[in-house]
Amino acid sequence: MHMIKWIYDKIFLEHQEGLFIISMVIIIMIILTTIFLVNYELRKNKNVN
Amino acid sequence: MRKIKETLKEENIACGYLYFYIHFVVEVVCFYFLSKVSNSMLVWLVPFLYDAFAFVPQSLIGYINDKYPKFKVSLIGTILLFIGMLIFSFFHVSKFIPLFIICFGNAFVHVGGAENTLRNSKGKLSHSALFVSGGSFGVISGRLLAKTSLAPWLLLPFILTMIPFILYADTFNGKDSDSLQKFNYVKKGIKPGIVIALAVFVVIVRGYMGYGIPTSWNKTILQNVYLFCIMGIGKALGGILSDAFGIKKVAILSTILAIPFLIIGDNMMIVSLIGVMFFSMTMSITLGILISCLKKTPGLAFGLTTIGLFLGTAPIFFIKITSTLVNCIMIVALSILCTFILNYLLKGNGDAYD
């Protein structure tokens, strides 16, 4: 519980630049995963055809 | 006119109208919240995080929904929006907590709307265009509501009004499993990877240009209402006219015709609004291009357009072009580039549905 409170205080209340960096990392990861999924689907469709 | 009327009476078009309302409610809630929260010191961070977490995860949510279509994403989104607004209304926590919940709620409902309208469209664009257009009316309504003294909790029952619409729209689902196979808007012989990259590039450019349109005339609330309403009408017309007269004709004409109206209309509202309407028409066209390449994963294809929108709007938070001349040159150059790309990708009008 203390751990969650500490993370909440640090990220959401004290260091919003940290929140921005974490968010950007998550967004970049999602974009890379999407590129991988598109590539995977295109290869799968090619093999089916 | 007869063709347009026929398009508006297409089979299953009702799910487009249903999601028009659902999308409207979602944007009212999101932009009410954003306008209330952005008054604080976090002027740029809140809208930036909203764009990031409402737009980008839609590709992953869409892909999961493609694989598990029985997953009721729209209902999950409604619940998330409700929880987000509930926290915002009654709990004194960091504003980022409801922000993230509302973002995910928005993303889930968008994916549900895209999946539902695309799966029921039989290769037509008007269904998804109607769904997309509802958002513009919601954005301005949400902003206007935020300026009033309306308490946030009053939006909670408003969110719940989406549920019957979602449930009714779901009754249309799955009646025609071949619906997505009818999306054949792209010329044969072009590698799907290149098509996807170019279509996303067009979305990025349009997203970026959306913020750069010179609108010196836009000073009053009423003028702002006109601007957003015409955006909504343009988005809907893009799909309806594409179905009626052919996607290639509409894509190229709307992109080219938008240029003079946008440039000349800096100080003339009516001229500028005509340009904005033409400019908004390509929204559903790029979605049609992406679905043509990813027919089995419409959710993923829709997510690519929203990633494109995020990538297009993200630079605005960091770089702003202040020179009107540079702005106009960029609009002209990018629009011409988009026209060439759309002309290269899209099939001729006669053979759109083979």
Structural write-up:
The complex is a heterodimer of chains A (49) and B (354). Chain A has 49 residues and is mainly α. Helices cover 94% and strands 0% of the residues of chain A. Chain A has a domain at 17-49. Chain A has helices at residues 2-14, 16-48. In chain A, helix 1 crosses helix 2 (16-48). Chain A is elongated, with a radius of gyration of 18 Å. Chain B is an all-alpha fold. In chain B, helix 2 (14-37) packs parallel to helix 7 (126-146), helix 6 runs antiparallel to helix 7 and helix 10 (192-212) packs antiparallel against helix 16. The radius of gyration of chain B is 19 Å and the shape is globular. Chains A and B meet through helix 1 and helix 2 of A and helix 3, helix 4, helix 10 and helix 15 of B.
Condensed summary:
Chain A has 49 residues and is an all-alpha fold. Chain A is built from two helices and no strands. In chain B, α2 runs parallel beside α7, α12 packs antiparallel against α13 and α12 packs antiparallel against α16.
List the helices and strands and how they pair.
The complex is a heterodimer of chains A (49) and B (354).
Chain A: H1 2-14, H2 16-48
Helix pairs in contact in A: 1-2
Chain B: H1 2-7, H2 14-37, H3 45-55, H4 58-67, H5 73-90, H6 96-119, H7 126-146, H8 155-160, H9 162-170, H10 192-212, H11 221-245, H12 247-264, H13 269-280, H14 282-293, H15 298-313, H16 324-345
Features:
heterodimer; A: 49 residues; mainly alpha; 94% helix; elongated; B: 354 residues; Growth Hormone, Chain: A; 16 helices; 72% helix; 0% strand; globular
Order of helices and strands of chain A: HH
**What composes the largest sheet of chain B?**
none
Distance between the termini of chain B: 24 Å
Calculate the mean pLDDT score of chain B and round it: 87
Whole-angstrom Rg of chain B? 19 Å
Percentage of residues in helical conformation of chain B: over 70%
Give start-end ranges of low-pLDDT stretches of chain B. none
The biggest chain-chain interface is:
A-B, 19 and 27 residues
Order of helices and strands of chain B: HHHHHHHHHHHHHHHH
How much helical structure, as a percent, in the residues of chain A? over 70%
**CATH class category label of chain B:** Mainly Alpha
Alpha carbon gyration radius of chain A: 18 Å
Question: What is the count of β-strands of chain A?
Answer: 0
Unreliable stretches of chain A:
none
Strand portion of chain A: under 5%
Shape of chain B: globular
Q: Per the principal axes of the C-alpha atoms, what is the gross shape of chain A?
A: elongated
**Oligomeric form of this entry?**
heterodimer
Quote the CATH topology of chain B: Growth Hormone, Chain: A
